Amino acid sequence: MQLLLIHSDYIEYEVKKSTPVAEKIEDSFKQGRLEEALTAFIAVEKVDEANVEGAISKAVEEIKSVATQVKAENIMVYPYAHLSSDLSSPKAGVAVLKGIEDALSGDFTVKRAPFGWYKAFKISCKGHPLSELSRSIVPDESTGTESSACGEVVKEEVVSEALKAESTAKSYWHVLTPDGELHDATTFDFTGHDNLGKFVDYEISKKRAVEKAPPHVELMRRLELADYEPGSDSGNMRYYPKGRLMKSLLENYVLEETSKVGAMEVETPLMYDMNHPTLKKYLDRFPARQYSIESDKRQMFLRFAACFGQFLMNHDMTISYKNLPLKMVEMTRYSFRKEQRGELVGLRRLRAFTMPDMHSLCADMEGAIDQFGKQYNMCIAVLDKIGIKVDDFEVAIRFTRDFYNENKDFITHLAKTVDKPVLVEMWDTRFFYFVLKFEFNFVDALAKASALSTVQIDVENAERYDINYIDSDGSANRPVILHCSPSGAIERCIYGLLEKEAMKAEEGGVPMLPLWLSPTQVRVLPIAEKHMDYAMQVADKLNCRVDIDDREDTVGKKIREAGREWIPYVVVVGDSEVENGTVNVTIRAESEPKKPVKVEMTPEELNARIAAETEGMPYKGLCLAKMLSQRPKFL
């Protein structure tokens, strides 16, 4: 079940027209209004049919909790199918809505809008931090008997215990400032920290569904990087040559950075036995939805991370204290998570994604905290080189209260490192396998946040997977494990870059990708056919991804198209350049809208400039034909 809870000054509706599944209603039910109400927009889903009473109970508990927090005495129960694409049968939907109405009526003034009717409605949202909240309700497994409300048993989606715990976990939200002070997140003054304010609102409200496509969706198509794949499951994308090039460069860069800190690259399977005793326990501890498939009469699941593959490998290894911290990394192409359909959009949230997954075995908690700090700094450096700076992301640090009380100085140091306030989520009880976790979150043009880099201190899985190391005295000890993704999902890095540049353009800047990631780094434009030989000579002198626009178009049109493709260096060659052995270069990074910066230089000088800008970063050649006339159009 999906809930959207709006604390409103008023909510009113009027029935307009029935649908084929409309419930029969009396005239008095055809319009309604409530003042000072908590409006519960509800979409009942197929999974709720397996345990209707459980779904009602959990929904009522959640609605009561929010109503108490916002001090609402009136509740409007409003069927709203648009919250889900996996709706229950109409019969079950009406049964659940009526059940919620009846259960709430003892403590609140309750009205219910009719099911299956087109309705006009007006609502006035109060606009405080708790006035807009969304919740996903997953009922407990049924007893196996048929549900009397819907008359049929529906196979329930496999949902981990950790995911269920996440929806019910009591979170204490704070803002931690670099001076070590914890502030209530709902009353903190976000002046000068507008982006953090958007992130805090996103986290607390849990409004994950996307109402419209963010800017990067149009950009990923126009730049011919990626697109939706209608022949696959939602959240599985196709990548054109330019997008594949960018992904490959990012993958290579992150692997090089993990290699520098001593991580050994490994490769593990994509699917695992769901009934393997160790893996089955881990499935219930990871807050993600899995894809399950059948193979040779065994129930398998597609990996949602590289954890289990690496942990099973660790279990079989002989590890000495001299090997610690022991680090292994895999670039998972792909990891699979069955994210909810309403949350899937562009490259922001996918069901199949590429994740650099590094795990570190540490001798003890002291060693784990030391590594956590080093990997925190590594993640900052990795994102910086990718093109996402400290000012571009917000930090979330999540931990148990006990861990915080024992490590306040260390956690404060994390805020000092980024030199800005960070969001803190604290729990009284540990719900998951980790006691400390951070994420760097990018907030896009629609004020939706997406996690990039993360590190977690895992205190469960060494025991679960029976992973040991031999200490100096010959005894076998359990290590503490760190999970680290230095960049987060590779696709999400591209999303972050595109969204960042879209917002930059909206503010009047000139958007572009980092030079080392640009599919074409230099484009040469010969003014006429007679300049083609010189254009080819220039291209041959440049040690970078350079192409030539040899099409029969005007120079003006070629320049405009190069601008729409965000080409960093556009070189125009004509009579003067041929005569002088120079090139006329438009430098995108230094230009303003309608004010291009043009510089005359030699090809050797341009080559040196590009080499300096891309020093130390991975390189691959052109992914398409050098001559634009020979290239196909992907869109």
UniProtKB/TrEMBL annotation:
One of its GO terms (cellular component) is cytoplasm. Zn(2+) binds at C307, H359, H483. Its EC number is 6.1.1.3. It catalyses: tRNA(Thr) + L-threonine + ATP = L-threonyl-tRNA(Thr) + AMP + diphosphate + H(+). PROSITE patterns: AA_TRNA_LIGASE_II (PS50862). CDD domains: ThrRS_anticodon. Homodimer. This is Threonine--tRNA ligase.
